[in-house]
Amino acid sequence: MVNTLRISEAASLALHSMAFLAEHRDGLASTHEMASALHVSEAHLSKVLQRLARAGLVKSTRGPKGGFTLGRPRNKITLLEVYETIEGPLAMGSCLLGSPVCGGEKCIFGGLLRTVSRQVRNYLAETRLPELGYIGRRKHAGA
Predict the structure, then answer these.
(1) Model confidence pLDDT, tens digit, residues 94-119
(2) DSSP code string of 2-66
(3) What residue spans define the domains of the chain?
(4) What mean pLDDT value characterizes the chain?
(5) Mean pLDDT, rounded, for 10-25
(6) Where is pLDDT greater, at 59 or 94?
(7) Which residues contact 122 (CB under 8 A, 6 or more apart)?
(8) Which pLDDT score, from 0 to 100, does residue 104 have?
């Protein structure tokens, strides 16, 4: 069965690290600092950040005081751009079975899958980093 929306661990790391960087205004954030804040593998996060850097979404600075910052103004980066940097183009789900048993004439879900896919795409395309707020900060603020 094909999922209507697949978010891999790498895409999740990319989205969360970009949200972190959008709120991190104290200069550079190290991979170690982000991995600790997000409770994720530093090695996996490092690979994701390299891909984001190649796409120009983040800038990296090497050295002992190095780290990452956003590559562009945070209000110019959409969630769709971050997602597609890691996953490739967002597929518009139209059949949960992958190849329609019905011959594609009449889906048992009606137009629901296309509608949901369109809503997900629109949300990701229209949502920019400043709209997220950093989830980790909210979690600790209520503690």
Answers:
(1) 677 666 677 667 777 778 888 888 89
(2) --SS---HHHHHHHHHHHHHHH--SS-B-HHHHHHHHT--HHHHHHHHHHHHHTTSEEEE-STT-
(3) 9-89+128-141
(4) 84
(5) 92
(6) 59
(7) none
(8) 62
Instruction: Output the six-digit token pair for 131.
Output: 């709209």
Q: For 29, list phi and psi in degrees, rounded to 5.
A: -115, 130
Q: By 3-state DSSP, what share of the chain in percent is helix, strand and coil, each rounded to 5?
A: 50, 10, 40
Tokens matching residue 134: 């950093």
Tell which CATH classification among 1.10.10.10, 3.40.50.10140, 1.10.760.10, 3.10.180.10 matches the domain 9-89+128-141.
Answer: 1.10.10.10
pLDDT at 98: 65
